[in-house]
Amino acid sequence: MGKKDPRVDAYIAKAEPFARPILRRLRTLVHRGCPEVVEEIKWGAPHFNYRGMFCGMATFKEHCIVGFWNRALKIERDPGAAGQFGRITSLGDLPSDAVFVGYVREAKRLADEGIRLAPVRKSKKPLPVPAPLTAALKRKRGALARFEALSPSQRRNYSEWIGDAKTDATRDRRIATAVEWIAEGKSRNWKYERPRPR
Hints:
Helices cover 42% and strands 11% of the residues. By secondary structure, the protein is an alpha+beta fold. The protein has two domains: 6-112, Aspartate Aminotransferase, domain 1, CATH 3.90.1150; 131-192, no CATH class. It has a four-stranded antiparallel sheet. The longest helix is centred in the middle third of the chain and has 16 residues, at 97-112.
């Protein structure tokens, strides 16, 4: 059997007056469609779990959102809308109870059958390394090889740091520091990294 969390009651009670009936209705419909769902607060907002993360809702200053976690659940929506159901500002912005409960039941069926789509991860385009950095690395023995051995995110971090310099003097200082650190095998944020156990 499902489980309600008193923290969700508190979240709804603190919400703006326009949001309270929306959140109550969403909560009721989620429980109607999946009686086994378990509530919790995750990232400061109500979430519902059923065989993993199931769906969640949140309220903001002037709107609410609700969404299902499983990308295998197909919901017709405006691609420019926030969340799967857009910005919800009144009960009239929600689909009918029958339609919403249908989505909940379909999400439950997918969870029961173990059908999930992995999240889409957008890969970042490689950031070009500033030419002055490359030239400086070539002048310091072994520095270019060490730079190329860094992870893509570490190389990107150095490139962005140098590329963001507002003046030539700042850029030149950053390049000198970067070459020194890279030659020592350090990432740009090496001061904040935890030492690795030996």
